[in-house]
Write a sequence for this structure.
């Protein structure tokens, strides 16, 4: 992940943290480098894949990937959070190209993603997939469970949830995270959130007729 | 009004492929034919109101025009952060169409009442708020909302006036009884019948609106005198529109009475008429407060 070391350092002004300090970084890179059918040129194409960052805090890894892939200019990486910089500590979709939802308050991305998937289906757009990244602590928010139960019940198979599990939920998830989804009819893969080939395989393991979750397990309670 | 809403929405779903409807079980029975005809655009998420509003936000992100429909407290209060963030903050639009406003469900108690709904919506910028006073006003207002690209709150009630006063959607004040004093009583939505009865014999202009937002400030200024007394009577939280009336008249010395539903949780059941009486919104209660206000 040395490719992202420079934009990360530029964003955070911190030369000491290695890219592995960012729990979402490897998954985000694999998504944008190998999986998502979206580019700066197709960021408004109705046939694009959608990526919704629900866990909006600590978006440095997200911005670094967007810069590396050409969605945003490198200059924006300097001065995140300033009045005149579009990059804030929670992303704003009206300010940043390639950002599909404005996030920050937890538990909104997955329910929004259900709506996006249904909106695409209602318009006959069957090719795009909708990926929503949530954190394991974010799953505490009950709104997620409304989305998990409903998406499973209707077999919303264009939806993929990506859970970054750095074991930061205060009360944990007894018997693991995947079971919260599979009991509602989702397919699930749990794998090492640093291994790019296994991440890619887990992200691609969706099946017809069921929503899919990929649980990326990373080191406990690293930074964002 | 619910019947008019179901009928118009069902027709609009057939006419406009961009329109969609999101439900959380309430009124789902009435929309069975629409759901059969448009299974991908009539979505019942079950008893999940947060999800209902978020799904509408997601639909809108893909270019659809969603209508969200449920009881007012479950749309506006239970799912308030979803309204604020998943619709408003995302910069997308939806129509929130509620029933059960204020004390329609008087016998059900406080859990089914939301007199603060318009005040909450009013914390957001750029929303149109429609408060029809009669079932015949629902269809035209809903059609206007469906053809628009801005956020709309449509607040329906089982309380109605005896006749429809304004079936246009331009949001202008309508004079129901002219006066010569320069004083004005503005009745919002279903309060008109009671306001009309309560101001009998008072020299005030009685005006009606089903559109408190945006408020017809220019219309009020043209009806009001140089130093007017103005009363606004609303079927939801008292004072909700005090700021827009005060702003409309900020360059004129004026007196203002803002009447509506009180803040207290009464912990009472009974009928809507009982609650109207308790909040001073029945003709006798309005007569007391308005005659004292206009003739101090």
């Amino acid at each position: 992940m040395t490719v992202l070391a420079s934009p990360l350092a530029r964003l955070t002004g911190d030369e000491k943290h290695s890219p592995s300090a960012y729990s979402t970084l490897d998954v985000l890179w694999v998504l944008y480098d190998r999986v998502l059918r979206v580019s700066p040129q197709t960021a408004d194409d109705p046939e694009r894949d959608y990526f919704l960052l629900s866990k909006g805090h600590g978006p440095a890894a997200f911005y670094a990937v967007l810069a590396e892939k050409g969605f945003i200019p490198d200059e924006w990486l300097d001065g995140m959070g300033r009045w005149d910089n579009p990059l804030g500590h929670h992303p704003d979709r009206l300010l940043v190209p390639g950002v599909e939802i404005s996030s920050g308050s937890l538990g909104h991305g997955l329910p929004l993603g259900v709506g996006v998937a249904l909106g695409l289906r209602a318009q006959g757009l069957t090719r795009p997939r909708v990926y929503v990244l949530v954190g394991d602590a974010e799953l505490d928010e009950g709104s997620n469970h409304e989305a998990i139960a409903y998406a499973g019940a209707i077999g919303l198979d264009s939806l993929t949830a990506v859970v970054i599990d750095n074991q930061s939920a205060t009360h944990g998830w007894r018997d693991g995270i995947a079971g919260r989804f599979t009991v509602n009819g989702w397919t699930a893969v749990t794998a090492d959130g640093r291994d790019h080939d296994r991440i890619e395989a887990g992200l691609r393991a969706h099946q017809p007729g069921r929503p899919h979750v990929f649980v990326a397990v990373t080191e406990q309670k690293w930074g964002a | 009004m619910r019947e008019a809403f179901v009928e118009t929405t069902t027709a609009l779903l057939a006419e406009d492929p961009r329109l969609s409807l999101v439900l959380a079980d309430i009124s789902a029975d009435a929309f069975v034919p629409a759901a059969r005809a448009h299974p991908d655009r009539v979505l019942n998420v079950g008893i999940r109101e947060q999800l209902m509003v978020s799904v509408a936000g997601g639909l809108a992100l893909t270019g659809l025009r969603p209508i969200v429909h449920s009881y007012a407290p479950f749309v506006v209060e239970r799912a308030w952060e979803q309204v604020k963030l998943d619709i408003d903050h995302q910069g997308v639009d939806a129509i929130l169409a509620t029933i059960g406003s204020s004390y329609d469900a008087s016998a059900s108690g406080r859990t089914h009442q939301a007199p603060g709904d318009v005040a909450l919506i009013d914390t957001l910028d750029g929303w149109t708020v429609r408060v029809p006073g009669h079932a015949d006003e629902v269809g035209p207002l809903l059609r206007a909302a469906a053809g628009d690209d801005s956020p709309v709150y449509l607040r329906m009630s089982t309380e109605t006036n005896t006749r429809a006063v304004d079936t246009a959607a331009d949001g202008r004040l309508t004079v129901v009884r002219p006066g010569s004093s320069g004083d004005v009583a503005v009745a919002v939505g279903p309060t008109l019948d009671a306001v009309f009865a309560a101001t009998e014999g008072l020299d005030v202009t009685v005006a009606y609106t089903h559109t408190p937002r945006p408020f017809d400030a220019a219309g009020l200024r043209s009806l009001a005198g140089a130093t007017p007394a103005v009363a606004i009577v609303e079927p939801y939280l008292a004072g909700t529109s005090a700021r827009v009336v005060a702003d409309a008249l900020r360059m004129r010395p004026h007196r203002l009475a803002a009447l509506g539903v009180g803040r207290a949780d009464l912990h009472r059941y009974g009928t809507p008429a009982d609650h109207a009486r308790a909040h001073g919104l029945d003709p006798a209660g309005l007569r007391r407060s308005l005659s004292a206000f206009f003739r101090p």
Notes: Chain A touches chain B at residues 46, 93-94, 100-102, 105, 108, 111-123, 125, 142-143, 146-147, 149-150, 153 (CB under 8 Å). DSSP finds seven helices and five strands in chain A. Helices of chain A lie at 5-12, 25-35, 60-68, 109-122, 142-153, 178-182, 196-203. The first helix of chain A runs from residue 5 to 12.
